[in-house]
C-alpha cells in the first residue's frame, strides 16, 4: 500500500504526511512513485512488444510524472499541442505519441507533424481533409488512425461516456468505411489504424470486449476491401475502486485483447490508460479551518476546494476522506466543504469523521484528473505537488503565487 498508517499517522510510502504538510503547506497533492511504477508495470507485464502502451497525459501531466513514465518506456496519448510540448519537455519521444481529440487546430497538426508523432487519431471526415492539407503544405505523409465510435454503452457517468453515438467523439460506425476509403485516396494521408475510446471509469470488461469485437470486425471488413489496417488502439477507460467497487482484472482484459488480435493476425494493439496508472497513486491533503454545526448539518470547512479537485462537484464523484492522524474520538456525520463560493463546492457529503481545527485530512485516489482539472476560481493559487519515493520526497510543482495569477493581465490604459 502506498498510503498507510504508521504509528497512527498516514504516510505516503515512508513519508509522514503531517510533516510533508508542515513543509510544503496545504492543499498539497502527494504522489507515490512506487505506486505509479507498479501500476505501469501491471500493464506492461501483459503487453509484449510490438504492442504499445500510451499513457493518457490528461490524467496527470506533471513533468515529473511524465518523466517517470518515459523512463519506464511509456508512449503517450495527448489531446493538445500543449500536452505534446509537455511530453517532450519531460523526456518523452514524439515517435511514441498518439494524438486524440475532436477539434485539433491547424497549428497543433503542423506542430505534431514537425515533431514526427506516431499517429493522429482522426475523429471526423472534416479533420481528415484538414490534416491532408496541412501534411501537403509540410511535404510529409500524416500517419493516421481513424477513431470510430462503436456505439457501446460503457455504463459510466454520462459526462465521461464517450462511445455512444450521441457523444461528440469519433466517426459514426455507419460512416467509417467511407472515411477509410477517402483516407486511402488522399495523397498525404497514410491510413494505418483504427481506434476507439468508449469512456472512463469503466467497471466491467463487457463494454471493452464488445467494442473490441466491433472494431476487429470492421478491420476484417476493411481488409477484405483491400484496406490494410495494421493497428488497433482500444483507448483507456479502466476503472479504479473509489468506494471499494470491483474492477476488471487488467491481465484478463489485456490477454483477451491479445487473443482476439492474434486471431485476425498482423495487428499491433495500443492502449491509452490514464486513471489506472495514476489514480490510486495520489492524495490531496487539506487542513481543517473551521467546524460549523447547524440544526440539520455539520460542516468541516477545509482549505482545499472544488478548484483543487473538481471531480465531486462535476460528477458527484466519491473520494474517501480520511484523517492524517488517526484518533479514537467519536465521529460525527459531516459534509467536507471548501472555501469556494458555490454550494457545489464539496469534497464529500455525509462522511463519518472526527475532525478538529488544524487537523489534516487526506482525500484519497486523487492522482488522476485531480490537479490537471484544477483552476484558479476565486483567485485561489493552485496547490503544490510532491512525489515521494520510499523515504525521499521531491517538490514537483511549487505552489502558485498570487502574482502568477494575474501575470499577463493589464490595467486599463485610458485615463480615469
Ligand atoms: C482518447 C482518450 N484516451 C484515453 C483516455 C484515458 O482514460 P482513462 O483515464 O479512463 O484510462 C481518455 C479519457 O477518458 C481519452 O479521452
Ligand atoms: N475527467 C474525468 C475523466 C474523463 C477523461 C476524459 N475523456 C474524471 O475525472 O473522471
UniProtKB/TrEMBL annotation:
Substrate binds at residues 275, 311, 315, 342, 369. HAMAP family: LysA. Its cofactor is pyridoxal 5'-phosphate. PANTHER family: DIAMINOPIMELATE DECARBOXYLASE, GROUP IV DECARBOXYLASE. It holds the Pfam family Orn_Arg_deC_N. Specifically catalyzes the decarboxylation of meso-diaminopimelate (meso-DAP) to L-lysine. Gene3D superfamilies: Alanine racemase (3.20.20.10), Lyase, Ornithine Decarboxylase, Chain A, domain 1 (2.40.37.10). Homodimer. The gene is lysA. It catalyses: meso-2,6-diaminopimelate + H(+) = L-lysine + CO2. This is Diaminopimelate decarboxylase. Its EC number is 4.1.1.20. It comes from Pseudidiomarina woesei. The active site is at 341 (proton donor). It is an enzyme of class 4 (lyase). Residues 29-367 form the Orn/DAP/Arg decarboxylase 2 C-terminal domain.
